[in-house]
Amino acid sequence: VMQCSASLDVLFLLDGSYSIGKGSFERSKHFAGKFCDALDIHPDRVRVGMIQFSSTPHLEFPLDSYLTKQEVKERIKRTVFRGGSTETGWALKYILHKGFPGGRNSSVPEVLIIILDGKSQGSTAMPAMQVKERHITVSAVGIKFPWEELHVLASEPPERHLLFAGDADDAANGLFSTLSDPVCTATAPGCKVESHPCERRTLETVKEMAGNYVCWKGSKQPNAVQASLRPFIRWKRVLIKPPSRCFRTVCPDPCDSEPCQNGGTCVPEGLDRYHCLCLPGYGGDVHCEAKLSLECSVDLFFLMDSSARVTLEGFLRFKAFLKRFLQAVVGQDSTMSLGVAQYDDDVSISIELGQHKDPFSLMKSIDDLNFSGGRALTGRDLQYIAQHGFRSTPVFADVQDDLPRVVVLLTDSKSQDSVVEAATYAKDQNLFLIGVGSSFMRTELTEVTGNPQQTIVYSDPQDLFNRIPELQRKICSVGDPEGCQTQSLDLVFAVDASSGVGLENFLHLRHFVRSSCLHFVINQDVTQIALVIYGSKAHTVFALDTHTSNSAVLQAIDQVSFLGDSGSAGSALLHVYSDVMTVQKGARPGVNKVVVLLTNGGGMQDAAAPAQQLRHNGVLVFVVVIGDTQRDTLLRVAGSPNYLVHMSSYEDLQYYQGLIERICEGRRAFKAKSPANLCKPNPCMNQGVCILGPGSCGCECHGWEGPLDSPRSPVLPLHFCVQWSPRGLQHFSRALQHSKRQ
């Protein structure tokens, strides 16, 4: 409800020094974006600009660059941490010299918002005083622990202009409250600025007595040493919280009447509207009436960890979670068959699949489950459930239960045997695996499920119960996959294995490729993946049609070796163009195609031309570069900033989750611009010319005939080329294999 529409120039001054660090810098950006929500950004009303300072000040964008709130917030998000020393005084002198870049030259009120972590490496008192003498209102926002220096920077009174950004919403409210009088006078009806007691946090260095220590010194007498006790003092950093008063804008809350039932949380929307966040199982209406339905039909088996490492407390937590989940999703008319087993050294099927038809008897059976202890043999017990858990007798002998079969693994202890073989066996039995566990179980759960999208991790015991809706969605997604990862795609990774990368960093790249592959459904009908590594020459590790399962691709990636010579990205992309993204090597005409180049930025001089050839052939080229390099060269290779990903270090790759989303967005944009072309890549062999037709294509042959211009074949039709589909692909593949034999 806050909105400042006055004529106002706002300049953010962000600390980008090493002392604040990347994490706190991101919090600074978050606060700046949060405060922009309260500004009516327009050339004639509020203008916003930003300067980042460390060793030197750097103008990120002047006040007249962006005309809307959305543009400003997007630009703030893209601001990159620079690093350096904390020269706050120099930044203030820059403002004294340059003014507000893009501003209106003091014809409107000017507000300077300094966001920093504290102590400058130079004096700030004089430039801060000079800035305020120019009638610039200065608010100092502390990240981490504000120092006394913030009081020197902020305008008077300090309780209105000194803020702590630990809570971005609260600090943004406080800053808006400061501007409300006298700059932004249009406060929403019913709202008012109030003061309340609060704390100011500061980290100070104090000295304390550590005790008395024996000190020794010589004397004038021969062979005599004197000893005495002397006090020992040490310095210590202490968090001080002096009491103060804060000013905040307070508005009437539509949630004061507690309209949400059954433990629902009321979320206000403005002054007179709200919506309810309901607990799992309650959402029958806007006030959280009971709603019990899984909304899908499956055969569902819970495999619950009862080993010693999970402890009795953890086992009881899993029982409570299971009961809460079933209360939320199982009703009298549920079409779900449910079974429960617990495991340690051995597995015990406590509730047979479909044994209970009513929720009451099901809950009673779950209450009767007892903790057993023992070793966690997850692999062996999972395979047992895959073999025996879904054996049920149908009501009629001639009726087959063809519902999707789902196993939910609840575990909080590392398995003491291998889980990979059991997981592969379960998937071969057409079982859909979902793993649920705490965050330190993420890697093993992904090994079990084969896909991070099928794992659920929780941060603390209460967070486990918050995951019930997520589990409900994943169970009901069986047989109904969503997202571009389940659409047809030919994907090639080209990985820099040169000496410029080094062995240790190459392993980071290899791990990144492996984790990226986990997001795709790999088979000949959906996603095909190829891997190329390169130094001075490129080598195909495996082609698009080599591996037809996730497990086979992952195993092949794990065996890739480092090369170690000089690197040429151009030769790698040329190799992909001529020897990987071809019909003869498994590329499918009419299917979306993507190349992801992973590089340290070296050897890029000759890469632009083959990258353009790939794009002309309908292939999207992504460049993921690690470290500092020439951006102009990289842009020529990627073709667009949207297809260029820059990482500051190889270690950061493990935290980057945006590649798959970028590939999906790029495919959508590329497809809208250039619809799929069945003649790219050319399916015709021996210099045959591909001729497009309505929904199909054919080959114009020169001295050859048969499918795809292979030598004469009396069996297959001439000029064979159809639009790709799973069924058509098999026909296409058989024809191509026959051509190769000929």
TrEMBL record:
SMART domains: EGF, EGF_CA, VWA. It comes from the Eukaryota. Keywords: Disulfide bond, EGF-like domain, Repeat, Signal. The keyword Transcription does not apply. This is VWA2 protein. PROSITE patterns: EGF_2, EGF_3, VWFA. SUPFAM superfamilies: vWA-like. It holds the Pfam family EGF. Residues 252-289 form the EGF-like domain. One of its GO terms (molecular function) is calcium ion binding.
